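Protein modeling request. Please complete all fields; requests missing the sequence field cannot be processed.
Requester role: graduate student
Desired output: 3D structure, token encoding
Chains: 1
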Amino acid sequence: MKAIVFDDFGGADVLRLADAPMPELRPDDLLVKVMAAGVNRADLLQREGAYGSQSYGDSDILGLEVAGEVIASGDAVTGFAVGDRVMGIGGGGAYAQYARLDSGMAAAIPTGMCFIEAAAVMESFVTGWEALAHLGQVAKSETVLVHAAAGGIGSVAIQLAKAAGATVLATASAGNIENVLSLGADAVFDYRRMDFEAEIVDATASRGVDLIIDFVGGSYLARNIRSLAPGGRLVQVGLLGRDDNAIIPLDLVLHNHLRLIGTVMKSRSRAEKRAMVRRFREQALPMTGQVLKPVIGAVYPLAATSEAHRRMEAGGLFGKIVITDFPD
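Delivered output (328 residues):
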């Protein structure tokens, strides 16, 4: 089969289309003919060597998010059949003609949703639902702040928080403010020109927000903590700021009994990932494609995967990057 591979860690130029062995089917697996694959920041980090020799999945091929058609299944699989349209999260391998997908981390594509849209669902929606509902325990009438709200997960978090009945504040670039407002955000702050900490003071009458979903880290950490109301929660999902040595104002954490929660899907065990997907399927999948819609920012053919990575590195895109046009 054809797949995107790389021989050494480095920039987007190391990616190339080449022959790769077919994945071997295990008892719980679906073998999927890939129609589209989502691009995630974890793919870029793996390509750059940020994970070193660590292996969190079952394929050295990049790509955690797949949408396609089931062409075979393992002996222990239930609930799926050959010909089904599925979307799912894998331990790598989505940048290929065929991908092996643990049936416990797969879901049926909602009626009316195309493969490109489906490829933008699982990583973003499962991560977003986990951060907001399971870890963040968002509740009706609370106030939520979502950083990097124009990105793949951020755009989902806005929709999920609104569906939960929360008031939603967000940060984004000036060019994406109207886009984020269109998702249901109540107010959006230009992170380049405005101090979101000061804006939170004004927007909440100095009370602070109940929940923050952050993908940036770095210098945002102390400002996030100062922006939380007593009893507030900060769920740290990513480190776009590339700084893991940020200062924590522990006096506020203790005095205001705050909770700081870190989460990442890639390093979780298979059982944990399955549990996350199960919670999404049971609680949020029925809304997907209706109340909740994937936001597609850009689409690239498989042969131009390097360009897709460069586009993500450039930042500022509204929504998810998806790869399609896989060989037959």
